[in-house]
Design a protein that fits this description.
Blueprint (H helix, E strand, L loop, with lengths): L3 E2 L3 E5 L2 E4 L4 E4 L7 H14 L4 E2 L1 H8 L3 H13 L3 E3 L5 E3 L2
Antiparallel strand pairs: 1-2, 2-3, 3-4, 5-7, 6-7
Helix pairs in contact: 2-3
């Protein structure tokens, strides 16, 4: 079964999300979680992988978020100086 969410993600196999923009599958469901829990989860990913650099669509796919939610999350992490945005538009852990 294919479930469309704003034309970006579709679930084809339970537990697997397909990102149409990036053309690959990523594990895990698209979940709706409280914003503080979501911020903690994204911070943990960046702390676990300090070299992680993502475009907004990649972050959206990796974290299983709708575009508006992902944009708000990235803006919050930029405002708090946890993330920086590189000159090429990638979101990276601040030094």
């Amino acid at each position: 079964m294919i479930v469309r969410m704003e034309g970006v993600l579709s679930q084809r196999v339970p537990g697997e999300i397909h990102c149409e923009r990036e053309g690959h599958f990523v594990p895990g469901p698209c979940v709706n979680v409280a914003s503080e829990e979501l911020l903690r989860r994204v911070r943990a990913e960046y702390l676990e992988m300090p070299g992680l650099r993502l475009t907004a669509p990649q972050a959206q796919c990796l974290f299983g978020l709708h575009s508006e939610t992902c944009d708000a999350l990235l803006a919050t992490l930029l405002d708090s100086k946890f993330l920086i945005r590189t000159h090429t538009g990638l979101f990276a852990l601040a030094a």
